[in-house]
Amino acid sequence: MPTATNTDDQPAPGFFFRFFVLAWIAYFRTLFDADFAAGVARLREGRPALPPPPEPEKKVEPEKKKPEPEKPVLREATPDAALQLLALLQREGRFVDFLEEDVASFSDAQVGAAARVVHEGCRKALREHVPLEPVRSEDEGAKLTLDKGFDAKAIRLTGNVVGEPPFKGTLAHRGWRAKDVKLPKMAEGHDARVIAPAEVEL
């Protein structure tokens, strides 16, 4: 009788070897070896006795931290220039007097007359010492498009700001930019905090 062979061209074990050796070994090992029993179960289902080798773990590269934006360097402004400008507005247009006055008891005509004087004097002071020009030359209400790279320091977006430039919108205010600053020089020892000296009539 020819000897049976397995799929690897090796002689298959005979009946008595299978019954008296392999069967009993397999029986007891199946009882006490869970991994071996799992292999037998896989063979019965027609799958390989050994589980597939585990897939190599994929190396997870740590996320690169985005560089933090540089914090703007804050410069401390000296108050002298602001106080000096306020003094000029007071001298030319009685600006501080107008703001500190309780106008609730005045009539609209009285407030309007006072505002006209303040407006004329303050406008004169600004045009002489801090001449201004509009940031945008278009008329207010005009439609315009802001391309990528527009000057965000000179243009403020309002409303529903979504996405990236170009932005299309309506010019609500032209803005103002100082063309020059021509404040008078202060004498040594001058106290800029005195916006307007008290007046004493003799």
TrEMBL record:
<keyword id="KW-0812">Transmembrane</keyword>
<feature type="compositionally biased region" description="Basic and acidic residues">
    <location>
        <begin position="55"/>
        <end position="72"/>
    </location>
</feature>
<feature type="transmembrane region" description="Helical">
    <location>
        <begin position="15"/>
        <end position="32"/>
    </location>
</feature>
<protein>
    <recommendedName>
        <fullName>DUF2760 domain-containing protein</fullName>
    </recommendedName>
</protein>
<feature type="region of interest" description="Disordered">
    <location>
        <begin position="45"/>
        <end position="72"/>
    </location>
</feature>
<keyword id="KW-1133">Transmembrane helix</keyword>
<dbReference type="InterPro" id="IPR021212">
    <property type="entry name" value="DUF2760"/>
</dbReference>
<keyword id="KW-0472">Membrane</keyword>
<dbReference type="Pfam" id="PF10816">
    <property type="entry name" value="DUF2760"/>
</dbReference>
<feature type="domain" description="DUF2760">
    <location>
        <begin position="79"/>
        <end position="201"/>
    </location>
</feature>
